[in-house]
Amino acid sequence: MTQHRIYNFNAGPAALPLPVLEEIQASFLDFQGTGMSITEISHRSKPFDAVINDAVGRTQRLLKLGDDHQVLFIQGGASMQFCMIPMNFLGEGDAADYVNTGAWSTKAIKEARIQGKTVNVVASSEDKDFSYIPGNIPFTKDAAFAHITSNNTIKGTQWAEFPDIQTPLVSDMSSDIMSRPFDASRFGLIYAGAQKNIGPAGVCMAIIRKDFLDRTPAGLPAMLKYTTFADKNSMFNTPPCFAIYTLQLVLKWLEETVGGLDKMAAVNQEKADALYGFIDNSDFYRGTAEKESRSRMNVTFRLPSEDLEKRFIETALGEGFGGLKGHRSVGGCRASIYNATGIDAVNALVAFMAEFEKKNA
Amino acid sequence: MTQHRIYNFNAGPAALPLPVLEEIQASFLDFQGTGMSITEISHRSKPFDAVINDAVGRTQRLLKLGDDHQVLFIQGGASMQFCMIPMNFLGEGDAADYVNTGAWSTKAIKEARIQGKTVNVVASSEDKDFSYIPGNIPFTKDAAFAHITSNNTIKGTQWAEFPDIQTPLVSDMSSDIMSRPFDASRFGLIYAGAQKNIGPAGVCMAIIRKDFLDRTPAGLPAMLKYTTFADKNSMFNTPPCFAIYTLQLVLKWLEETVGGLDKMAAVNQEKADALYGFIDNSDFYRGTAEKESRSRMNVTFRLPSEDLEKRFIETALGEGFGGLKGHRSVGGCRASIYNATGIDAVNALVAFMAEFEKKNA
């Protein structure tokens, strides 16, 4: 079945690996000989147990997790995590450090404060429109955790290295999880809405260090406690089966086809270098993030005028490049180049950008 | 593409209409000419707006909703609603009536009480193992709402008619929504995990009467407030796009192919009559729910011994009838005959049951 496909630079939901989509399509009426679609099988069945356990196992291997971390799947996206994190991890008298690097960090801080929790905003890049990642941050000594947003989709910034502190880190990695290797042992919680790098919308991966599970207070509603998910392998109630299944296939692709996170990171670096390199050599396009804080996932850039940006986005779409519009809150242009967007797509985009510049400069 | 398909009697996730699955499959790599999968398009795009708005419009028409109700899509299943309902609708000094008709009602009550809310359990059928729906219920006069579970998947009971009281009703309709027409105007909130009658796991439909939105207190986390979903057409954050899309196609099938809820209810009655009629004429099979409380969605029955039940379930599976095992908490057998399970499947099951009886009685 040959079908029309575009180069997809969406910020999320975003491109998925074509072999994953093809496998879902081929088996959609009959999942592994069950005579049912993956959307029709029971979550209390051996075939689905195999799916979720495989997703957990691949996550453990890809991120080199030790036994002290547990992999959970929760609904509600990162936004639900903004709420659950302070609810579970900040008891009476506790305070947490948050670094504010953009809209998502700001929301995370808001959701903690609305619960009456004590938040120290120990650094912020709001002074320069969130165009950089702060350095030399005065983290508090006794904070319950330090919260960061590892990659900022809207402004196109990313932590090159994570803070080297004793306080356990908590990070929203929605937009760069599985894009590069890192030392997970320092994180009390890593969470990631799947719809950028690891799957479709509708499931959030949460990787929790087991000592953080002990912090959950008694008396919380079941669906708001991490322990509920940890105790039941994320199946206290019916999980989002299709989203978990798709995520499992994406991780399989990452492990078996790409070859793991070192290789994925190299490809992602190559893609980012190609795009930023072209932008830096152009007087027509201009990157918006400070160079040392640039994201390898979301390349944000401007053209000489908003009119040209509008024409650029429209012309690109007509030529098969989708998703290049900047976030509605900031305008401009953005190319999201997550794991599933190949170097071929980036090279084609660069060629298009050069052509557009030639015609419109 | 011809693929192996079984008769699916799963309790949830459950059978979906075959034309819906085929449409998803056919367009899975290229949704409506976008050159992207439905799992890859932005939720902030015209094609997805059309999907969610169509799902809302069809819900309004199928249930004949007035302007005073709003249709929302929330993650976390009915279990999250168990938590959100008391959080949003029970203020200081308020109390709610709950009718306890089984495991799901029991969980709903627990989630209200854990928040310190006042719950009056005004009736319970626990005295007879939840095998019936209570009558002549002494509802409280000034309750904030009266909560019922319209259909009980585990014990196979269903409210034939809803309580005729002034208090606004709140109902978990996860397992019978869209199976029959009813007067929605008396409900402050109707909620339904999609994975039984209207879609895949991963999205919960919530139909809220607008005066109930006014009850939401200030100071709740964003993802736990109904107003957050109402204010943003369920897209405050990234919604579970694929689940909503599938749900939209199921509602389209219900409206355009089946012909609406009157016709669906007639088919469902025919299916239930065929199965219960056969069971009642047999000395081998025995229904477990009281006759006047029987569910038209979940037909629970026993065989003369647990050994025979085990053999029945295994033999059935071998002959292409899946999902006939009773809930793990109660054992026995159960045939879930939701909207998407056709009369052909029920007739085939009855023929199989007759044959099995002949061989094993």
What does this 3D model show about the protein?
2 copies of one chain form a homodimer. With 361 residues, chain A is of the alpha/beta class. Chain A folds into 2 domains: 21-258, 3-Layer(aba) Sandwich (Aspartate Aminotransferase, domain 2), CATH 3.40.640; 261-360, Aspartate Aminotransferase, domain 1 (Alpha-Beta Complex), CATH 3.90.1150. Chain A is built from 10 helices and 14 strands. Chain A has helices spanning 18-26, 46-62, 77-89, 103-113, 210-213, 226-231, 241-258, 261-280, 306-318, 343-360; strands at 7-8, 69-74, 95-100, 118-124, 146-149, 151-152, 157-158, 169-172, 187-193, 204-209, 286-287, 298-302, 321-322, 333-336. In chain A, strands 2-10-9-8-5-3-4 form a 7-stranded mixed sheet, with helices on both faces. In chain A, helix 1 crosses helix 7 (241-258) and helix 3 (77-89) crosses helix 4. The longest helix of chain A has 20 residues, at 261-280. The model of chain A has no long low-confidence stretch (mean pLDDT 97). Chains A and B meet through helix 1, helix 3 and helix 7 of A and helix 1, helix 3, helix 4 and helix 7 of B.
Derived structural class of chain A: alpha/beta
Q: What is the beta-strand fraction of chain A?
A: 15-25%
CATH topology name of the largest domain in chain A: Aspartate Aminotransferase, domain 2
Specify the oligomeric state: homodimer
pLDDT averaged residue by residue of chain A = 97
Question: How many strands, what sense, and barrel or not for the largest sheet of chain A?
Answer: 7 strands, mixed
Q: Count up the helices of chain A.
A: 10
Strand order of the largest sheet of chain A: 2-10-9-8-5-3-4
Give me the count of strands of chain A: 14
Low-confidence stretches of chain A: none
Q: What is the level-2 CATH architecture name of the largest domain in chain A?
A: 3-Layer(aba) Sandwich
The most extensive interface between chains reads: A-B, 70 and 71 residues
Distance between the termini of chain A: 41 Å
Rg of chain A:
21 Å
Tertiary shape of chain A: globular
State the CATH class of the largest domain in chain A: Alpha Beta
Order of helices and strands of chain A: EHHEHEHEEEEEEEHHHHEEHEEH
What percentage of residues of chain A falls in helices of 4 or more residues? 25-40%
Tell me the CATH superfamily of the largest domain in chain A. Answer: Type I PLP-dependent aspartate aminotransferase-like (Major domain)
- Tell me the number of structural domains of chain A: 2
